[in-house]
Design goal:
The chain has 219 residues and is of the alpha+beta class. The chain is built from 9 helices and 6 strands, in the order βαββααβαααααββα.
């Protein structure tokens, strides 16, 4: 029997573990097949809400925020790129990259949810940032990404030119903070079960099969 399952996926575009977690979840769902009918809803989280326009050198940022040395950043970057590659996602060497404010990208994703293109846009934004090295604060990049997944580019440009959905995104971010989400990715399943971090497909598959079994026994 197919079981419906809702996934509230809280994440940020500038978080490498978020694309790793999303791909891990998607691969697990592919393996499970029609045993689960998933609904994935993406929610905003800003790792760096105070980041100014133009962003910051990522090495400088990580050193300030986490105290990481260049050697540690290089080693961590290699691990992340390898994990991403194992999941079919190409992540460029980001040692010379910058980190940006992502609020406008989250506004665009909020709109894309109503348009039925949210997951596609999220993937396109991850690729633009991590693979192509483009700035998710740049409205031209955001408009192009919207058009690439079949959204109305003109409507996207108009949205970004004003503050549409700003209040909604802020409210949603606060809602998840109030519910205890302080790191991403955080995945809430059926408003009951929580999985945190960029877990591998095997971990997601085990957890989802266990949840499906519990739901079956309770029905």
């Amino acid at each position: 029997m197919t079981r419906k399952m809702k996934f509230d996926f809280v994440s940020d575009i500038s978080c490498p573990w978020c694309i790793i977690g999303l791909r891990g979840l998607e691969i697990a769902l592919e393996r499970i097949g029609d045993e689960i009918d998933p609904e994935i809803v993406l929610h905003p989280f800003e790792l760096n809400p105070q980041m100014p326009a133009g962003g910051q050198d990522i090495g400088e940022h990580v050193a300030e925020k986490y105290g990481s040395t260049p050697e540690q950043r290089k080693a961590n970057g290699a691990v992340i790129r390898e994990r991403a590659a194992d999941l079919g996602f190409t992540m460029a060497d980001r040692s010379e990259a910058r980190i940006y404010n992502t609020f406008d990208a989250h506004r665009l994703l909020h709109w894309a949810r109503d348009e039925g293109k949210q997951l596609e846009l999220k993937h396109r934004l991850f690729t633009a940032y991590f693979t192509e090295g483009r700035a998710p604060e740049d409205h031209e990049v955001l408009v192009e990404c919207a058009g690439d997944v079949g959204l109305d580019a003109k409507a996207a440009r108009t949205l970004l030119a004003n503050d549409r959905f700003a209040a909604e995104v802020r409210a949603e971010e606060e809602q998840w903070r109030q519910q205890g989400v302080g790191a991403v990715p955080t995945i809430i399943i059926d408003e009951r079960y929580v999985i945190s971090g960029g877990q591998p497909p095997e971990a997601f598959e085990r957890a989802l099969r266990k949840i499906a079994k519990e739901k079956a026994l309770a029905s």
